[in-house]
Amino acid sequence: MKLLLLMLLLPFYVCAGEPLIYADDSYFPVIYKDKEGQSAGILYQLLLHHAKITGTKLEIEHTSWRRAYEFATQGRGGVIGLSKTSARLSLFDYSDPIFDDNINIVVKKGREFPFSKIEDLKGKVVGIHLGASYGEAFDQAAATKMLSADTSAVPAVRLKKLLYGRIDCALVGSGQLGLDSIVDADPELKANKAQFVILKHPLVKDTLYLGFAKNMNMLKYLQLFNQSIADAKLKKIIPETID
């Protein structure tokens, strides 16, 4: 049945062409540009899988997350790695969920603190990714100044601020794998790897999607892309979640 649906929808997109997809350039290991400047990561593997089974050419452009999001809101292309919020639901049409990514709280060794709810971050300076949403509870806490959000566009910068005591904690996705990916790619951070500790409880489980601005009228494309998501999960090309 799924194969039949792909075959029925495919001719439309072969004629219309594949849309441009904007993506973060430094979301390790979800989607990023490697040392050679090539696309890499789990979401990239999904996009490749979609292109393969539909016989279309992948059009992807990496940039900062803030720009990727802004370009998508302008209707210049889709954006992959998008979270859902009530505000964004009025702006974007979403794919089915791709996978869940735990957003973790990283602290400097010796400066651990108990965390189980958003109120535990009261008064703390929290390093976050520029333009990212970390769930409505965190976004509200930042907006009301219950905590102080310190933004940076580069994950390594966030961890260096943590290392030198400029922030109390930093938010990093994808568990120990995500933290290691950032630290191991930077000599200074790698030399201080033992200084970074992930708190036991994640801040939030962030479900990721592909989204298009509603004025792009991409619901038919998303219907086809959803079949690629299901097939990629069935074949273990992408995980159900990243802890």
UniProtKB/TrEMBL annotation:
UniProt xrefs under Pfam families: SBP_bac_3 (PF00497)
SUPFAM superfamilies with a match to the protein in the record: Periplasmic binding protein-like II
Solute-binding protein family 3/N-terminal domain sequence ranges: 23-212
Domain of life where this protein originates: Bacteria
UniProt xrefs under InterPro entries: Solute-binding_3/MltF_N
Keywords: Signal
Residues making up the signal peptide according to the UniProt record: 1-16
PANTHER family from the UniProt entry: ABC TRANSPORTER SUBSTRATE-BINDING PROTEIN (PTHR35936:SF25), MEMBRANE-BOUND LYTIC MUREIN TRANSGLYCOSYLASE F (PTHR35936)
Protein's name in the database: Amino acid ABC transporter substrate-binding protein
